[in-house]
Amino acid sequence: MFILVFENPELFQMKMTHLSPKIKILILGEEYHARAFSDQLKNYENGVFEPKYTSELTNEPHLKNYDLFHLISTTLPLISKLSKYGQPILYHWIGTDVYRFIKNSYIKRQLKKYFILSPLVKNLVVWDNLKSELSQFNVKSTVLPLVILSLKKDIPPLPEKFSILTYVPFKRWEYYNGDMML
Question: Under DSSP, is residue 10 helix (H, G, I), strand (E, B) or coil?
Answer without folding.
Answer: coil
